[in-house]
Request: fold
Amino acid sequence: MSTYLITGATGGLGSSVVEHLSKNKKPSEIAVLVRDAASDQAKEYQSKGFEVRVADYDTKEKLIEAFKNIEILYFVSGSNIDSRTVQHKNVVDAAIQAGVQHVLYTSAGRKDESQNSPVAVVMDAHVKTENCLKDSGMAYTILRHNLYTEVIALFLGEKEALLQSKTVFLPTGDGKTAFALRDDLAEAGALILKDAAQHQNKIYTLDGPEAIDFRKVAQILSDITEEEINYVSPDVDTFKTTMASNGVPEDIIGMMLGFSLGIAQGEFNSESKDLEYLLGRKPRAVANLLEQIYA
Reply:
């Protein structure tokens, strides 16, 4: 009988949580939630002895069935910003009805919860889901992840493009972010799952080892590539025009702009030691991942 269920198990975070948790727990104790049981990764999970359950966040009835006999749920937040408030309510309601005892939710760290924040559209669902869990009657653990270190590479593009432009071009001003590696966040989640009773009704702010700005990122990249990488923080209109002229889709420009302005405003400038406490070691620095991508 599975004790744990990991949602988003075919994604980067969820699959990493499964990997870390299985170092301490038997596969037979771990169920994974997938949308397609015929996918290669779902079949791989089955071959390794994990219980595969099928549902998506849009269908509460299937979620209730998938959550039955599960004690502890690791709830990876949905990726569809437009619909995830409703989706998340489905997950919480289904967990209550299925008798789940404890939910770990992957939220996001922030400073400003008002609609004036540049990232309000992203954070709104997190705020509502946290409140929903607090009112649910279930035990909860809220994991407020800072931005993934992997986001830097998404913003900057591939190595060839970076070396051609030799420029980090983002309207982030002097804003700092305590980027955290996704795998470190997953490891911390798995450690909480292993001793879940010790973490009931707690909120953790999970930051990387230090908050840095993109001028520092440019310096790190200069050291890695042995090229001088400059940092330019353009105004909003210049950023939009430049990105559009390079063929970047409008929705991607909007996403990059929202997070960049959030960074500039200090939304992610936090240096909590919660991640270090949970891991029992220093989280890995930004340079660790950037070396793998840009060296």
